[in-house]
Amino acid sequence: MPQTIKIGVTDCSKYRNYANWISAYGPEAEVIKLTGAEGLENLRRCDGVLLTGGEDVHPRFYNQPEMYDYCYKDDVSEERDEFEWKILEYTEANKIPVLGICRGLQIANVFFGGTLIPDIPTWGKYNHSKLPDDSDRYHAVSIDPNSRTYAIIGETEGTVNSNHHQSAAQIGRGLIVSAFSPDGIVEAMERKNPAEGAFLCLVQWHPERMKDQHSNFVQPVRAAFMKAAASR
C-alpha cells in the first residue's frame, strides 16, 4: 500500500475540479478540504497545500486600497484572503510544500510583500479572461531555462489556458518570475533560493482543467508537488 499523501485544498466555487485533479494522481492521494472554522485545524494534518483559483484579492492586502475600484466587486472575499493568509503563515513556518494556481499565485505574491495588477486590460495588456463563450483562453508561455519551473516542466515554450483579470505586479520578497506570457504577464513564480523554504510552485494557468491533461504543463507540475509533499 503506497504511503498516503495528505493534500489540503482550499475551498472555492470550483473546489471539486481541484480535488479530483489531486485524487487522479493515484490511490495514495488523500484530499483534505480547507474551509470554515475547522480549516486551520485540518491544516495540521496536511503534507502539502494547494491554493486554488477564485476571487480577486482585496487591494488593502497589498496596501493599495484605492485599486479596489478596478476589482470585480461582486467577486472579492476578504474573509478568504484572511484565511489563506493564515494558511501561508502556517506553511512557511512549518515548511509545508505549496502549489498555487491562478489566484493562488496572486495571494502568495501578496503574502510575500508583492502587489497585483488589479485589472490587466486597464493596464494596457491583452485580455487574459475567458472567451465570450465562457471557454478558457489559450496563449503561449515562455519558461526561464535556468528556473526550477523549467526543471519540472522540461520545456521553454508551450501553450497554457487562461482565465484571470488580475496578475502579479511587483514581485514578493524571496520570489522570482520563472515564466511570462508574450505580453509580459507573470505566468509562474518560485523561490529565488529554493533552499530557503519548502517547495513553492506558483502558476497562473489552470493545470487542473487544461484540455490536454498529458501536457508537460499539467502532470509534471502535479507530480513535483506530490513528490515534495510525500518527502516532507
If you had to describe this structure to a student in words, what would you say it looks like?
The protein is of the alpha/beta class and 232 residues long. It has a single domain, classed as 3-Layer(aba) Sandwich (Rossmann fold). The protein is 25% helix and 23% strand. It has six helices and eleven strands. It has helices at 15-23, 39-43, 78-93, 103-111, 148-153, 219-230, and strands at residues 5-10, 29-34, 48-51, 98-101, 116-117, 137-143, 157-162, 167-168, 175-180, 186-191, 200-203. The strands form two sheets. It has a nine-stranded mixed sheet, with helices on both faces. The protein has a two-stranded antiparallel sheet with strand order 5-8. Strand 10 (186-191) and strand 11 (200-203) form a beta hairpin. The protein is globular. The model has no long low-confidence stretch (mean pLDDT 96).
CATH-defined topology: Rossmann fold
Global outline: globular
Provide the residue-averaged pLDDT: 96
As a percent range, the share of strand residues is 15-25%
* Number of contiguous helices: 6
Distance between the termini: 19 Å
Class from secondary-structure proportions? alpha/beta
In angstroms, what is the radius of gyration? 16 Å
* CATH class identity: Alpha Beta
Question: Helix proportion of residues, in percent?
Answer: 10-25%
Number of strands: 11
> Strand order across the biggest sheet?
2-1-3-4-11-10-9-6-7
Give the SSE string: EHEHEHEHEEHEEEEEH
